[in-house]
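Standup, Tuesday
Yesterday: got the pipeline producing structure tokens again.
Today: sanity-check two examples.
Blockers: none.

Example 1:
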Amino acid sequence: MVTSTRHVQELANAPFQQLSLHAVAKEILQPKYTMYGFEWKDQRGIEGTGFVRALRSLLTAHLPLLLPSLKTIIAEGIESDIRLGRTARNLCLQPYWMQETRSELHRVSQLSSFVDPESLPLLDAFIQESMRVNPSDASKAMLAGYLRRLLTDNPVSGRRKAIEPFRFSDGLLVKAGDWVCLPQQAMLRDERLYPQPACFDPTRFLRRQKVQDLWPVWGLGNATW
């Protein structure tokens, strides 16, 4: 695991031919077992059109078996989007902040029929603080069974698997086959970055100019969302 700003930046900018998120997905999903012997490469985008067609054919052939699970995943995902993870719950648990965010929204909506998200800094800060306190919630609603436990009970993010050896600028070596990641939960509760981390305080994000590298919730590099 890496936590320094330099390591996080180098992890985010590492060539996907060396540190691969695609290889992580392959190792978690184990397609050779879960997709009737189907296999893919550790590196994304090198399989070609034949791979895509074969995958499409397999999915189409097994669609009747997949539909019940897909309906459940989609339904839970929509619910997650509606609730914005724990944000709605935190609003209910925090009457003061509910009133403050309502006042902000009402004030801004009086000025224009179009509400620019940039004009709602308090609501944005509240969402960020909700995600800091509960960073894994966005995944929990989308996953089921073993996969859900694997990705949400282990509070890390930014997973990459080394396809070939990768060395950070300070000499730290990630051997081929090893994973490197960020201890997301620990970083979001680091007192040096977030004073009184156990306290729910959206104003901490009002004092920040922008989301920093040590904010791993959105993902890393070209996998940021």
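Example 2:
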Amino acid sequence: MYDTLAHIETQLAAIELDYLRKTYLATRPKFLERATAIRAIPDFWSTVIDEAPAEIDQRIQPRDVPVLSCLTSIDIERFEIEDADNGEPRSIKITLNFKPNEWLCDNQIEKKFYWRMSHQGWCGLVSEPVNVRWKNKDLTDGLLDLAVNLWEKELELEADALPKDYINTTEEYQILLKKVQRTPQDAISIFGFLGFRGHHISATESAASMQRKQDVVGGSTQKDSLDEETPPLPDSEIYPHGEEVAVALSEDLYPGATHYFTTAKKRDANVSDEELGSDADPSDISAESRNLGNLDHEQRPNKRMKNSA
């Protein structure tokens, strides 16, 4: 009985992934068309960020706001999709574009998130730290640089075929660990998100774990050690909320950007009416705000990514 239920759940998960692939490929051209239209709207993305869902909004520090106001576009790609029937649709690439500003040397920042499964059975998004070149003050207070340094050191050790836990003895690890321990989590810039790594799961380990789960469900091996309980993140993780922010960006803020922008504009228009008083002429409300109101009829399903494989 339990084997049958497990098999059905696996089939349902496969159908959901197939649906996600096909939906992405069908809607991608329209999102690119939307991106072109957005370029003609001043401060579109900074307005959207002002309306961001709690998973993002509560992570934004006051010092982040001037930099985020320079955003010109956000793009989400499910870059591991090969075609309608193949590829991992839960892996995402987030691209942030900024107008020239006094904080960032580079106007484009990209970060990839890979959907992985550990040998214990946990599955979710993992990533690699992204280097950011700052013109002046580093908003992450050095945390991002230290995360990149540790990552580069790990690549060196991997090339030398040293044991994985050897990294814990290195100077790079010890410096980062002390910095993480001294830094309050609620004080970290949202740009620390670019240093998120999550669980250290290689593509090789993930592929083997996926196959093993299929074998377990199919009955070819014993159900002995698959455990989907979320393990603790490594002590050296600088941004524990990274997966949460990535999911909120890709499944809420990005697809719902027009809704968030419209909400902000309609609220601003209502505030203007109240400031003008009851004798205000309705024709004084901008045509742009009235037209934006018509966009509110667009509805999209607000579905969260599921930890299924």
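Quick observation on example 2: The beta strands are 71-77, 81-83, 86-87, 92-98, 108-117, 123-127. The radius of gyration is 22 Å.
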